[in-house]
Request: fold
Amino acid sequence: MFDAMRLTILGAGPAYTDREGASGACYLVSRGSTSLLLDLGQGSFPRIFPNLRPEALDAVVVSHLHPDHFIDLVPLRHYLRYELTPRRRMRVLGPSDLGGRLDALHATPGFSAEALELATLGERTHDVGGLVIEGRLVTHTDESYAIRVSPADGGPGLVYSGDCGRAEDIAPLVRPGDTILSEASFGPGPVPPGAIHLDAPAVGRLATATGAARVLLTHLQMGHDPDATVEACRAAYEGPVEMVWPGSRVTL
Ligand SMILES: [Zn+2]
Ligand SMILES: [Zn+2]
Reply:
């Protein structure tokens, strides 16, 4: 029987915001007995618990090394190290310098390796239980990824933008019928010169060009109106568009 993927939004915030209760990027993808997180940004670690115990996750996949996408690996590491008997190690796929960055934060070589099994995401596929992960480099930091998650036995996938300055970079990951979960940092737009992020019209054009089935918008920076952002995406794409928030649940 076809087993659907489910997406639960744990954190949808950008790097900083005046929106009370917002926390950094964190998206729970589940299918059957497999669960993984896309990103684990600031303040989102406690939001795992109402859904599952962190040690039940099969992996955490990190798009890039900005704190709103990875910094709660620190509380995850502490939880795995100090709260569990026997200790557990968690598989983490991400940029190549992820371990070094975490170790430097604590000025402790080996800090991350005590509880995290780190591997480079790269532009390739990884099997995680009943799911397949595929990374693709996008314009943002030196090593930023967009990520596709799909059922191992086929079927529509979820393509997550991470943070991205050029929507075209994401297009090769999107198969017709996929759902796009994309940052729309600058809302209805335009993106100011030098800001390496997307606006909603760019996401809409991406969805139209790739035959995506649905668009979920996230990572809205403060000062931008959610309704106007959704409308701006709809002007470039005829399919369903919504803004997602912590607590949003989507069957894919
Ligand atoms: Zn971000
Ligand atoms: Zn970023």
User: Anything to note?
Assistant: Residues 14-15, 25, 66, 68-69, 163, 219 surround zinc ion (ligand 1) (CB under 6 Å). The first helix runs from residue 67 to 70. Helices lie at 67-70, 73-82, 98-106, 200-210, 226-234.
